[in-house]
């Protein structure tokens, strides 16, 4: 497989999952990503609950350092699935400090996410993939900070997610894009994810070991 390191610009419409890359290379990358995704999710799921809790607490502490004062910021979190770091306790704390919270919603398949207002105790409903999300009557917000859960990641700031492409489309659709902070496990680091033209680099990556990547201004 030939390593492809394009610029961090999105090469196609935000509602397209694939781009006009070399078809054979794209197929090889897709196969490799599926295998790595399955391996990393299985390894994460096998961690004892106590260890996962400790890892999430360490990630949260480093996020506090990276973000600093969150008063007045609109921060989009995520509802954890498949062993992702559960940072809901940290989101509750951000809300108490004066941040406005949002959660991602798939309103239209294969198109950018929207973000709806959410706060601790607010009603949620099953959404895409049955992930809890705010209902349609919740206000739509434009977050300035977005947390992107990582299945895998590399030192160039690229994210391996669940394969739907929603975060890439979302970042591509915003000008300027929000500050996108990938959060995941140090053990999920890869030498590269073999980024393709549709992949968008993150603003920063934070693991339980601290800040691992930050994009240059």
Which features does this protein show?
217 residues, eight-stranded mixed sheet, alpha/beta, 13 strands, Rossmann fold, three-stranded mixed sheet, disordered N terminus
Oligomer: single chain
Q: What count of helical segments does DSSP give?
A: 4
Q: Please list the strands of the largest sheet in the order they lie side by side.
A: 6-3-2-1-7-10-12-13
* Low-confidence sequence ranges: 1-20
CATH class category? Alpha Beta
Largest sheet data = 8 strands, mixed
Shape: globular
Overall SS class: alpha/beta
Q: Judging by the overall fold, what is the CATH architecture?
A: 3-Layer(aba) Sandwich
Name the CATH superfamily assignment. NagB/RpiA/CoA transferase-like
Q: Can you give the mean pLDDT?
A: 90
Helix content: 25-40%
User: How many E-type strands?
Assistant: 13
Strand residue content: 15-25%
Give a written overview of the molecule.
By secondary structure, the protein is α/β, with parallel strands linked by helices. The chain has a single domain, classed as Rossmann fold, CATH 3.40.50.10420. Helices cover 27% and strands 21% of the residues. The chain is built from 4 helices and 13 strands. The chain has an 8-stranded mixed beta sheet with strand order 6-3-2-1-7-10-12-13. Strands 9-8-11 form a 3-stranded mixed beta sheet, with helices on one face. The chain has a two-stranded antiparallel ribbon with strand order 4-5. The longest helix has 23 residues. The two termini are 31 Å apart. The N terminus is likely disordered.
